[in-house]
Design brief:
Length: 122
């Protein structure tokens, strides 16, 4: 069980690294966009495949997310990754903010509403 907890912490730390790499101007623009999408998905409480679906529910958490993180890390310059990992380590030690979770949910709801409006208007 401790190995799973350590793996979860490592994925969270790597997702923070990807987030900080996306904000760094030294990261190429296409990689920044990909990194933003991966980080948004990693920290979003809404999953592509809901976790209550047997087997498939954890597929995105166990396979897709780590592959996306790995891709961004490989496409980002090493100096940016090193700086981003240092920032991620500092950020991981901070307490969690419930207000940030509410903001993320509101952003996803606004995006879904906008997409629904666009789809119905077309």
């Amino acid at each position: 069980m401790s190995r799973l907890q350590e793996a979860a912490r490592r994925i969270k730390r790597d997702a923070l690294t990807v987030y900080f790499a996306a904000r760094d101007p030294r990261t190429p623009l296409p990689v920044r966009l990909l990194a933003l999408m991966i980080a948004a998905y990693a920290f979003s409480p809404i999953d592509l495949i809901p976790d209550f679906i047997p087997v498939l529910g954890y597929l995105d958490d166990l396979i897709l997310l780590p592959l996306g993180i790995l891709l961004v890390i490989r496409l980002t310059p090493e100096v940016v990754i090193a700086d981003s990992r240092a920032k991620a380590q500092l950020a991981a030690d901070r307490p969690v903010s419930p207000a940030a979770a509410v903001v993320i949910v509101l952003i996803w709801l606004l995006c879904a509403a906008g997409l629904g409006y666009w789809w119905l208007a077309a």
